[in-house]
Amino acid sequence: MKRFGATTAVAGLDLTLDRGAVLALLGPNGAGKTTTVEICTGFQDADAGEVRVLGEDPSGGPDGLRARIGVMPQGGGAYPGVKAGEMLRLVAACAAHPLDPDWLIGVLGLDSAARTPYKRLSGGQQQRLALACALVGRPELVFLDEPTAGMDPQARRLVWDLVAALRRDGVAVLLTTHLMEEAEALADQVVIVDHGAVVAAGTPAELTTSTGDEQELRFRARTGMDVTALAAALPPGYRAAETVAGRYVVRGRIDPQVLSAITGWCAGQGALADDVQVARRSLEDVFLDLTGRELRS
Amino acid sequence: MTPFPAGTFTPAPGRGSLGRMLRVQAGTETRMALRHGEHVLLTLLIPIVLLVGLSVLRVFPLPEPRVNSVVPSILALAVMSTAFTSQAIALGFDRRYGVIRRLAATALPRWLLVAGRLAAMLAVVAVQLVVLGVIAALLGWTPTFGGVLWALVTVLLGCAAFGALGILLGGTLRADIVLAVANLVWFVLLLGGGIVIPLAQLPAGLAAVAALLPSGALAEGLRGSLVDGTGPGAGPVLVLLAWAVVAGGVAVRAVKLR
Ligand SMILES: Nc1ncnc2c1ncn2[C@@H]1O[C@H](COP(=O)(O)OP(=O)(O)OP(=O)(O)O)[C@@H](O)[C@H]1O
Ligand SMILES: [Mg+2]
């Protein structure tokens, strides 16, 4: 647990990450993801609770533990005037058997910016350098705090490939993200946090499988429609809810009659049911149901 | 399919050798200090201009050869510029850009992080001493061997006192405030702190204060070593030591490297 004055940043967060597995910590801004990562990497001390990272207590950042982990802090970090290659070589020098810094610079597409001082690199380039710094020491466990924030789709794809390669080679990865698709694509385990606590955890498949053989139909329409009236317009046993303003879900067996009853009812309200989806819930739906908040607007 | 052959990232953790870490960190920081325009202006260009100007132009009376009286002032200025002003500004901005946190997340031990900074500072001071020494020699500077040895000891003491103050300033305040304060202090000490104008020529009250400042003590110590041939003298040595111990002690408590 971690408090900042009256704010409780992290409370009741239980995580277990197996060797060589990828865990995604998913949550909205201020959920406590960075605080959690910083406690695990020894940048902050927990006020209460127990943390073990690779069998060690991370508080105070013991030298032995730091030699085994790689960290990509949110917002990166480098000398303002340093060139990418210099910075990476310095971080590599701290490790016993580092990867070749020049190769890594090339892989991350930083060679074109090799002569640019850090403070003039674009946000995405700074992120790439931060990622390179986390990986160069060949750690057993890496912490990536929002590794793809501010990256273009191509760079994001590259990060995904890198994380997949890390997992394949037996490196454990704890990453934080706002992106559902990222957690879904990369993680063995997804932990959804909000207000510092776990609200759901499991594999992406577990989290997105609806209970029983119940189906869902989701759509967008104007906000504030009367969901009780909608449920009443359907056969008994169907439930309807507005999860977030303008987003509706109907649970039950979805067949063509029900679908047309729903769209017809909306039409009766003078609303167009838009973006209609039947089937499995996406992680995003799970997230919205659990936290009642939009991740991306 | 990924473009990375299997085994590319197979873990092989471990800490690098201490000597290599120190060399690479100090080397990186030294290179950055020597290619950063504003720092070079402060640490080399201004001292060179003042050294040449005060030696060649007869702006105020000095015994001949003028350069012999100018060198101690300039060396004191050079040490103050690097160990205090430049160091504080660099540390302030390094903190803002998160490099301290970045390095604290590697296997680099914390004492080595500090040692690397100090080594880089000493490397820059060494470059200054060589450059300024050569220029002074070309201007006809005639130091004694003993005087140079005493001066080196005094320079190290000055580095300790100013370096501790620089780390204290740069390690505790916001970068833009550090920038303003460090430059202001540099300017005030240069003129009123006994560096360019020797204590003997300052108004009595100011001279008494300046003698207790690291700038006055360093400049007087260097004058004693290089001009009078008497060594730095107990007063300046004690003043510099006191500043180093006090500022260093406060810095250890106040500066958060994590
Ligand atoms: N040093 C601090 N002082 C006071 N409050 C803090 C501090 N650090 C974090 N907090 C608070 O703790 C909560 C969790 O913050 P944290 O940075 O862990 O969130 P996050 O999940 O990483 O968010 P984001 O997605 O925006 O990065 C927030 O409410 C934040 O305001
Ligand atoms: Mg965060």
Automatic annotation (TrEMBL), chain A:
SUPFAM superfamilies per the UniProt record, alphabetical? P-loop containing nucleoside triphosphate hydrolases
Q: Where in the cell is it found?
A: Cell membrane
Give the source's domain of life in one word.
Bacteria
Indicate yes or no for the key word Cell inner membrane: no
SMART domains on file:
AAA
Molecular function as annotated in GO: ATP binding; ATP hydrolysis activity
This entry carries the following GO cellular component terms, namely:
plasma membrane
Kindly report the protein's main subcellular placement as a broad class.
membrane
Which part of the chain is the ABC transporter domain? 1-220
Q: How does it sit in the membrane?
A: Peripheral membrane protein
Keyword Transport: yes or no?
Answer: yes
Alphabetized, the UniProt keywords read:
Antibiotic resistance, ATP-binding, Cell membrane, Membrane, Nucleotide-binding, Translocase, Transport
Q: One GO BP annotation here?
A: response to antibiotic
Q: Which PANTHER family match?
A: ABC TRANSPORTER ATP-BINDING PROTEIN (PTHR42711)
Query: What protein does this entry describe?
Result: ABC-2 type transport system ATP-binding protein
Q: Which organism is it from?
A: Pseudonocardia oroxyli
UniProtKB/TrEMBL annotation, chain B:
Q: Which GO terms describe its cellular component?
A: membrane
* Keywords for the protein's UniProt record, in alphabetical order: Membrane, Transmembrane, Transmembrane helix
For the keyword Transcription regulation, the answer is no
Q: Which compartments is it annotated to reside in?
A: Membrane
Membrane topology designation: Multi-pass membrane protein
Matching Pfam families, A to Z?
A: ABC2_membrane
Q: Which residues cross the membrane?
A: 40-60, 72-93, 114-141, 147-172, 184-213, 233-255
The principal location of this protein is membrane
InterPro entries, sorted: ABC2_TM, Nod_factor_ABC_transporter
Domain named ABC-2 type transporter transmembrane is located at 62-225
In its UniProt record, a GO molecular function of this protein is: ABC-type transporter activity
Q: Under what name is this protein listed?
A: ABC-2 type transport system permease protein
Natural source organism: Pseudonocardia oroxyli
